[in-house]
Amino acid sequence: MTFDPEFKKALQLLPSDEKDKLILRLLKNDLPLANQLRFKLIDTDSAEDKREQVKAQIVKRIQQATERYYSPGILLMDIREISGEINEHVSITKDKLGEISLNCLMLRHLLEQNNARIASEKQGKAYTLSIYIVARVFKILTLIQKQHEDLHLEFRDDVETIGKYIGNNQYLMKIAICNGLDVNWLIQFNIPENIADIYKNLREKGYLK
């Protein structure tokens, strides 16, 4: 939404106390923006500090989800909640590198602790969880490719490890192949330059659903 110059000028002419009241009223209805401003204005932790806190929570949450495992569907609910926390961190801090590393950490720990379970589930029972994992891999590869080339190697170990877990899971491999994910991109850390277009085209054709 854009504002015309006349409206902007009128806002600038408002008395300071009236501006403050309006800002507070607006922030009550926009919690993400309020959290962003809190982080910028008064939080003493850096984005990296916040990232480390989220990392610790991811490890803890996945361990808890693994210990109380009931079904792939329940596990997926837990993973989606964790993804939401990652998204919130990125929204507040604008931590683009953290978005990659946190998503890598989530998938790496998820597969490390639950790969055998996913592989042993009856056919179709783990489908939605597997689709989510494959889609999240595409997101990670797309985010990495957006970064400067010098930063790519920072994520190599995580990406290769995730690729090996998928490669060792026959069911996940089937879902990956059927949805256009070449696991060699991960294992060999050879991300196509047009990975974003590949992902977009797959979605438009109805894959990853």
Number of helices: 12
Largest sheet: none
| Count of all domains | 2
Structural category: mainly alpha
**Which stretches are poorly predicted, pLDDT < 50 over at least 5 residues?**
none
Shape: elongated
Q: Report the C-alpha radius of gyration, rounded.
A: 21 Å
Strand content: under 5%
Topology as H/E string? HHHHHHHHHHHH
Quaternary structure type: single chain
Task: Round the mean pLDDT to the nearest integer and report it.
Answer: 92
End-to-end gap: 31 Å
Please count the beta strands (DSSP E, at least 2 residues each).
Answer: 0
- Helix content class: over 70%
Would you give an account of this structure?
The protein is mainly alpha-helical and 209 residues long. The protein folds into two domains: 30 residues; 158 residues, no CATH class. Helix content is 76%, strand content 0%. Helix 3 packs across helix 5 and helix 6 runs parallel beside helix 9. The radius of gyration is 21 Å and the shape is elongated.
Spell out the blueprint of helices and strands.
Elements (H helix, E strand, L loop, with lengths): L4 H8 L3 H13 L2 H11 L5 H21 L4 H22 L2 H25 L6 H20 L2 H4 L3 H12 L2 H9 L5 H4 L7 H10 L5
Helix pairs in contact: 3-5, 4-5, 4-6, 5-6, 6-7, 6-9, 7-10
What descriptive keywords fit this protein?
209 residues; 0% strand; mainly alpha
Sum this structure up briefly.
By secondary structure, this protein is an all-alpha fold.
